[in-house]
Amino acid sequence: MSEIETYNLSKTFGRLQAVQNLNLQVPKGSIFGFLGPNGSGKSTTVKMLTGLLKPSGGDAVIGGTSILTSPVEVKKKIGVLPEDLALFEALTIWEHLLLSGPVYGLSKDEISERGEQLLVYLDLWSNRNTYVDEASTGMRKKCALAMALLHNPQVLFLDEPFEGIDPVASRNIKNLLVKIAHKGVTIFLTSHILEVVERLVDNFAIIVSGEIVCSQTMAETIDAGETLEELFFRHVVRPHAEELEWIG
Amino acid sequence: MDRISNVVRWQWRAYWRRFARGGKLSTGNQGFVLIIAGLISFKYVMKLRVAAVELAQGRALILEALLAGIFAAWVVAFLTRDLNDDCWRRARSLPLSLKELFAVRLASLLMPPYAWIVLAGSLAIAYPLWTAPRPLLGMLAALIFIIFAVAMGVSASQLLSVAKWRRILALSSVILVVIVSVYVIQSPWPPRFMTVSSLPPMALVARAASAGNAWTTAMSLGSLVVLMALGLGAAVFSFRLTLNDESGNSARRLAWSFNFPGQLSGLVAKDLRYFRRLLDVYFGLLAVVVASIYLVTADVASTEVSIIFLTMIFLPNCPLAFNYFGLESASGLDRYKLLPLAGKAIVLSKNVAFAAFCGIQISPVLLLVVWRLGITAGLIGLMTSASLACAYLAWGNWMSLSHPVRMHFFRFSSSSASIFDAMAGIMFASSPAILIIYFLNNSRSLVALVPLAFGVMYIASVLLAARRFPVKVEKIERALA
């Protein structure tokens, strides 16, 4: 049973076709890796699926609900760690949780209890009173992740979750993702760190210039005797880099 | 010098490209802005001529008033500018010395066209001074005064971007307001300082230009030079502070306001915090102080005057209603889009925050109205406030979605906002007060119709804004980016 399904999902910006007729199925309770080089359409896809961008064509169904007809219902089901983190200036990390909790219908006690557990787990509790605009990149990312998890979402979208995160927190997050996926939460993540993705995901797709060029399970890749990195470079044409003789 | 000019040249290009790239030159009814600027310039030129005639007759009241206006214009011009934009952050990472960075900062502050208008207006003060008994010394004094005004504007702008200094300035302002209020309440009406014609720096320019003896002229010029040196010192000092500002990180924040009940409580609490970071709203507090002084000291207080004061309290808060997304960053707006909220809920959260913010300001005045004029006047005040809030929000629910403009914390709202729409909005939003005053004097039974009518308009505006929000949200995001 698929938790995320897209049907010819497309996005154009003027003449640029950022995403073209994307068709994806992500099974419930799986970890799905969405890979691709810079500017390939990964973040645009995540933005469309999470309601940050309106698709130019096609549709997507998340947890049985269409993003076009019931966007608010979809947003209740999902947790998002967006590319730009979507945090408010002049609010502390703790205040971000106090702000978003009631919107998802959580009581004060639930927010306090879950918020404390999340921040302790993410090693952020001692910094809970820090303004996010004064926090480090890693702290800001962990704050956004805590916001994404606070309401116990059915589907989790994570755009580059491990970038800028220290190794300890990174491992904690990976363990957490595996654990919640076993409990039935579907995870859709993008990342450039192929080694991490390889060890974490059940399925993946590679997108290049807005089109899916490869979509398979991790088990299939291993059975074929390939690594994710080899597969990735087979599909992604690397630009020829001139030697920069003048450096050094 | 080459390095500075290179950086400034690219900053200049980046500044104008911001408008040209997004096709924003046409937004904000720039044509009307030009017409209004032209009208102000015409009035200013007229005043310059009056000042020249007056100065020739040995009086300097108008000249001093114009100089005070120039001083205020420089301070306000710099207080609308964001000091930490991307260009500045990039410039800071370049291998430039402190002096070079300061020069880049000054140049960037003088880039917006309104800074040129203020500069042209400042230099035009030479015209009346030409008719003074000592024209050249007068012009020299005016030049020193202008440098002092620029330095003070730069200092104020820079100090307000440092958390510790904001607290110091806020505390100083409160102490000053309390002292002036106590003085005014205890003095016979009108208070004595209102009849004092010559205040220090402006009077020094007038004295340098028209003093009968050389000693007074020299003293005036000397005093102005000292003031200028102090101003420049303050500008450099505050510049160093902004470069080394590391305050704030350790501070414990109070999250009490996030404990209000309701689904939108967090968003409203956030907006209350954002709103008090816009400098315009402090004029609302000033209006509250003046209204309170009036209600406490006036021999015969009137309901009509109280209504006018209520209107004046709402007036500086208009950016919060007419441009309620202006203080959001593009990233913050993304969070709104990620939350499971329909457009109506988002619009309502902004409206509730505005109503709560204005409510906090007007409540002491309404209490004083009840104390001084009775329950009926208090009810009329309450109806006026409710009507004004509905009118401001009815207009704001249209304008915030149609003409969003980025505003910055601890700055005045941007002068690039749509002035024509804002002025039309102020006229519309102030109309409930005019109608209520009219009905009070002609047909009291119709007073209750005013809040009803504006309430209906407000509800219609919310429904319309809720439908428009999903369509307009990308435009808002582009405007804030």
3D structure, described in words:
The complex is a heterodimer of chains A (248) and B (481). Chain A is an alpha/beta fold and 248 residues long. In chain A, 37% of the residues lie in helices and 26% in strands. Chain A contains nine helices and ten strands. Chain B has 20 helices and no strands. Helices cover 75% and strands 0% of the residues of chain B.
Condensed summary:
The complex is a heterodimer of chains A (248) and B (481). Chain A has 248 residues and is of the alpha/beta class. Chain A contains nine helices and ten strands.
Q: What are the defining features of this structure?
A:
heterodimer; A: 248 residues; alpha/beta; six-stranded mixed β-sheet; four-stranded antiparallel β-sheet; 10 strands; 26% strand; B: 481 residues; mainly alpha; 75% helix
Q: What is the strand and helix layout of this fold?
A:
The complex is a heterodimer of chains A (248) and B (481).
Chain A: E1 2-13, E2 16-27, E3 31-35, H1 42-50, E4 57-62, E5 65-66, H2 71-77, E6 78-81, H3 93-103, H4 108-121, H5 137-149, E7 155-159, H6 167-182, E8 186-190, H7 194-200, E9 203-208, E10 211-217, H8 218-223, H9 228-235
Parallel strand pairs in A: 3-8, 3-9, 6-7, 7-8
Antiparallel strand pairs in A: 1-2, 1-4, 4-5, 9-10
Chain B: H1 2-21, H2 30-56, H3 61-79, H4 86-92, H5 98-109, H6 113-123, H7 126-129, H8 135-159, H9 163-186, H10 200-210, H11 214-243, H12 265-275, H13 281-297, H14 303-314, H15 318-322, H16 330-338, H17 343-373, H18 375-402, H19 419-442, H20 449-480
Helix pairs in contact in B: 1-5, 2-3, 3-6, 3-8, 3-10, 8-10, 8-11, 9-13, 10-11, 12-17, 13-14, 13-17, 14-17, 14-18, 14-19, 17-18, 17-20, 18-19, 18-20
